[in-house]
Amino acid sequence: MLPPFIIEQIRQREERDRQRRENISQPRLELPVAPLPVAPLGVESEEDDPDRGIVILDLLG
Length: 61
Fold this sequence. Notes:
Distance between the termini: 63 Å
Oligomer: single chain
Number of strands: 0
Mean pLDDT: 81
Largest sheet: none
Order of helices and strands: H
Helix content: 25-40%
Strand content: under 5%
Low-confidence stretches: none
């Protein structure tokens, strides 16, 4: 019987090998996407409407 840490190392190695094989066999396309704009901290958005709220629709009644 192998110690648990040896079994875990073997499992991790097999998982890395499996991922490596999948990455080689599966081509990957990376799209150039512009980063999302980040709002400055501490400044509230001017788009917030104080009169906004929620609407509840009862579809079963």
